[in-house]
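note to self — DONT lose this again. spent like an hour looking for the file last time. sequence + predicted structure for the chain T wanted, 108 res
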Amino acid sequence: MEVMWGREFPETDPVAVRCEIVLVSYSISPIPAHAYCHYCKTRPGATRDHIVPQSRGGSSAWWNLVPCCQSCNAKKADSGGWCNCAFCARAKMNHIPIVKQKHGGHYP
């Protein structure tokens, strides 16, 4: 499991609280019943969505996952996300150095 700020999976995260995100992880199963889709906020978050898709170098760390309904997950696919909240922006910024390293110093 990846660690960020010295924590594997935090009890709370101030950015997640501010963005009203229920933290999810592959080590915590199932997704909490009170977790609604991060994108549409109307349907239950039945799946875990990678903010930065794995196909673009995204990890499965807690800070790159949000609860997501199947419809929004299918629409987003490998697009890299349409949300610009602080939680998603942080995940994208955390991946830039990782992706640059994989692509010879360039961010695709």
